[in-house]
Design a protein that fits this description.
Elements: H1 2-17, H2 22-38, H3 46-51, H4 55-68, H5 83-92
């Protein structure tokens, strides 16, 4: 967001040098407003959710992504087991 603000200030300064850049200033302002509003609607990534200890929400997010990609069966791909533990489970089966 700070980069967007500094870019808008640069474009505004550019507008003072070249007044015909008025459309560019308004376009940049509009893009900033759209990105700010959309930031409230974009869900957290499953990776971020897992990094912050929100495993159940991460599973829901993964299944939502799978549904969007037309995968019908629910996915249960989140596991905190080591490879050795998983291999022992496979051998036990």
């Amino acid at each position: 967001m700070a980069g967007d603000a500094s870019a808008l200030l640069f474009i505004t300064a550019w507008y003072r040098v070249y007044p015909q850049a008025k459309a560019l200033v308004w376009f940049g302002f509009l893009l900033n407003i759209i990105s700010f509003i959309m930031s409230f609607f974009i869900p957290e990534s499953p990776r971020w959710l897992l990094a912050n200890g929100r495993e159940e929400e991460a599973k829901i997010a993964i299944n939502r992504i799978a549904k969007f990609n037309r995968i019908k069966e629910p996915l249960n791909i989140i596991s905190f087991k080591t490879e050795e533990e998983e291999q022992k489970e496979r051998e036990a089966e």
